[in-house]
């Protein structure tokens, strides 16, 4: 992939440039002061939202499998994609939660959502923490970052459409390659380092897990492999009809594609690999405050992704209120306002234009 190291042209009016790596101290101070009372996760909201969404998603999935007409199948499948997508995105919350304040949530999520959809939380835990590191964000060591704005235009559809193959890749990972790797240390090393992370950066090599995380990894992987083998076995022996399997894969691919589209606009992807200050990380991330349709394509607080990078421990249900308070307290031309955008379409257009810039 060709990388352009020339600075990106600004597409909106910007205040006077600050020195590289500078911090907007007032923004950081106000963000901390104004949200001190918003850091307690609500067990009622987490449990009801997550598992209510999962229940709706699975019911709609079954509805799609037994539907008599194509239009009702499509309607149920769409509802299933949206509801299961919302439930799946709680994997992001799991990586940031103080689990002492929400006991049992990670286990329940893995049993009800992660394992049935072949997305156990170990695929994201640890990975996402590196992405939030001041030392690693936007660098070659960041598993969740690629300088997409500096790449060729064809990388964007390739990046998005690759998600279509996720359900099949996960079935192979957990139903075939993963179990085989338990008997061969060399294969196991490759599976852990290269095929055990929800990552954006294909060059990222995951280290071996240790301690409590290694124990969680083992039971999550074993349970997910059981599900994958059961699906493949049921398909092979005619217990699971091919049409039902195709609908399961289509809904799963829909969830993955929707998430990949959201990921495409979560950042501006403009960093050239240098280390960034927290404020500059914020500017390279995005908020899309309008509730609709943001609540569909960026649920569970992810339409406030830039704010999340400022306050990563803030529960998702507090982000809208935090955004309201900070926006009211800071002037419109502050660093905080620079990460706010009107729509998904605006961000996609900006990114496409960035990839089409002349390169010398």
Automatic annotation (TrEMBL):
Pfam families: FA_desaturase. InterPro entries: FA_desaturase_dom. Residues 69-333 form the Fatty acid desaturase domain. The keyword Transmembrane helix applies. It comes from the Bacteria. Residues 1-24 are annotated as: Disordered. The keyword Transmembrane applies. Keywords: Membrane, Transmembrane, Transmembrane helix. The chain crosses the membrane at residues 45-67, 73-95, 107-124, 154-176, 225-248. This is Fatty acid desaturase.
């Amino acid at each position: 992939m060709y990388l352009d190291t020339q600075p990106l042209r600004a597409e909106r009016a910007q205040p006077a440039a600050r020195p590289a790596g500078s911090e907007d101290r007032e923004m950081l101070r106000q963000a901390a002061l104004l949200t001190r009372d918003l850091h307690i996760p609500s067990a009622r909201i987490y449990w009801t939202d997550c598992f209510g969404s999962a229940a709706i998603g699975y019911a709609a999935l079954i509805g799609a499998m037994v539907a008599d007409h194509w239009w009702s199948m499509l309607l149920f499948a769409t509802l299933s994609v949206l509801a299961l997508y919302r439930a799946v995105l709680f994997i992001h919350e799991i990586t940031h939660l103080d689990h002492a304040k929400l006991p049992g949530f990670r286990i329940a999520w893995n049993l009800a959502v992660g394992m049935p959809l072949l997305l156990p939380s170990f695929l994201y835990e640890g990975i996402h923490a590196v992405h939030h590191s001041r030392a690693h964000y936007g660098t070659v060591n960041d598993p969740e970052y690629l300088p997409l704005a500096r790449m060729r235009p064809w990388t964007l559809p390739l990046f998005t459409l690759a998600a279509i193959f996720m359900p099949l890749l996960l079935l192979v990972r957990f139903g075939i390659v993963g179990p085989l790797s338990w008997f061969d240390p060399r294969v196991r090393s490759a599976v852990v380092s290269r095929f055990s992370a929800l990552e954006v950066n294909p060059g990222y090599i995951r280290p071996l897990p240790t301690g409590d995380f290694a124990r969680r990894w083992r039971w999550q992987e074993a349970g997910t492999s059981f599900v994958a083998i059961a699906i493949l076995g049921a398909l092979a022996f005619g217990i699971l009809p091919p049409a039902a399997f195709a609908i399961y894969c289509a809904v799963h691919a829909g969830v993955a594609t929707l998430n990949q589209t959201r990921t495409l606009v979560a950042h501006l992807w403009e960093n050239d690999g240098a280390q960034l200050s927290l404020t500059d990380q914020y500017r390279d991330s995005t908020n899309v405050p309008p509730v609709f349709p943001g609540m569909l394509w960026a649920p569970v607080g992810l339409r406030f992704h830039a704010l999340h990078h400022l306050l990563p421990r803030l529960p998702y249900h507090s982000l809208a209120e935090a955004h309201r308070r900070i926006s009211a307290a800071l002037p419109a031309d502050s660093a905080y306002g620079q990460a706010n955008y009107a729509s998904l379409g605006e961000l996609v257009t900006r990114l496409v234009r960035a990839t089409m810039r002349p390169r010398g």
